[in-house]
Design a protein that fits this description.
Length: 339
């Protein structure tokens, strides 16, 4: 009996040791798993798999060009593949809604623009609000606008144009890329500040058509991106009267800004920027923001943007968020007045 008791005590001790060892292994595994889950949730290990970069337009346009140029840089910096995915439709709403429905983990982001962000959802019920459903990461570019006239018109300044409109009610017209698009919104709000000035809006299917109409003297003025009108100004076919930037452009040092002429505008140009779903962890947004900034500081990327006629204008996440909030509110009011 004593031998058997000693044997049982020995087995009992072995069992206890084995049990404690097993418990320690399980506890360690759980702690490690919890740590991995915590790291995954706060974004400290981001990224660890490919990123989908959505554009709300078809392939081949300026959004596609910018997405691929920055996407290539992000791949090098972050060590993961960045796949550009085109989701066009509904004036950008299709792509924006696809992002809204994505997990807020940084693995699906979008390169969007002023239209899908602050115009489309204010003109129609499209299922999202840019101020509530998305987390701005960074602005990457902004193409300023200019208002131009035909050189043969005899109009030499913005004041001349406005005086012509005052003195010739119903005769002055201006063209843009389309009704309800950003050039129209910006110009309409500008003219609404001038109750004695009447200029009829003539929408076209794109900037090139508006420029062609101005060259043919079919409209009095046109509001286009600078890149669309500067070649014709250089050939002396068009005269640019004012630009929408805060300061004069290096490429047009003799052309005043609307601001220096005493006018406030609701927007300065056609911007593009990155956004994520609204609940994306700040650590992940910061990682992407910093990588985007680094991409835009790369000499090769800057050269490629310049060759594509895309003016880089970086804003960090906080700056971009504030800009989107302000422009969304202002554009909503203008669009309501247009309707």
């Amino acid at each position: 009996m004593k031998i058997r008791g000693k044997y049982m005590m020995k087995n009992s001790k072995r069992f206890t040791v084995l049990f404690l060892a097993l418990a320690l292994v399980i506890l360690t595994a759980c702690t490690k798993e919890a740590g991995n889950e915590s790291a995954s949730k706060d974004g400290s290990d981001f990224p660890k798999r490919p990123i989908s970069l959505v554009i709300p337009y078809g392939p081949g346009g300026s959004a596609d060009v910018q997405a691929r140029l920055i996407g290539q840089s992000l791949q090098k910096q972050l060590g993961e593949t960045v796949n550009v995915v085109s989701k066009p439709g509904a004036a950008g709403a299709t792509g924006m809604n696809s992002l809204k429905g994505s997990k807020p983990d940084g693995y699906t982001i979008i390169l969007t623009a002023v239209g899908p962000s602050t115009l489309t959802p204010n003109a129609n019920e499209v299922g999202y609000n840019v101020s509530e459903d998305f987390y701005p990461i960074a602005q990457v570019s902004e193409a300023p606008y200019g208002i131009a006239v035909n050189t043969n018109s005899g109009i030499e300044s913005l004041d001349d144009l406005l005086n012509f409109a005052k003195e010739n009610p119903g005769k002055a017209t201006y063209g843009t890329t389309g009704a309800g698009l950003h050039q129209h919104v910006v110009t309409s709000d500008f003219l609404n500040q001038l109750p004695d000035v009447e200029m009829e809006h003539v929408p076209f299917d794109g900037g090139a058509e508006a420029v062609s109409a101005l060259l043919g003297n079919h409209i009095t003025a046109a509001v286009n991106t600078i890149s669309e009108i500067i070649p014709h100004a250089e050939s002396n076919a068009l005269k640019i009267l004012a630009v929408t930037t805060d300061e004069r452009l290096e490429s047009l040092p003799d052309v005043p800004t609307f601001k220096e002429l005493g006018y406030e505008l609701v927007g300065q140009g056609a911007w593009f920027g990155f956004m994520a779903p609204k609940d994306t962890p700040k650590e992940i947004v910061d990682t992407l923001d910093e990588a985007i900034k680094m991409a835009l500081e790369d000499d090769k990327v800057k050269e490629q943007f310049e060759n594509a006629g895309l003016p880089i204008k970086y804003l960090n996440s906080d700056e971009f968020k504030e800009k989107v909030l302000v422009e969304n509110e202002k554009n909503a009011k203008v669009i309501q007045s247009l309707n």
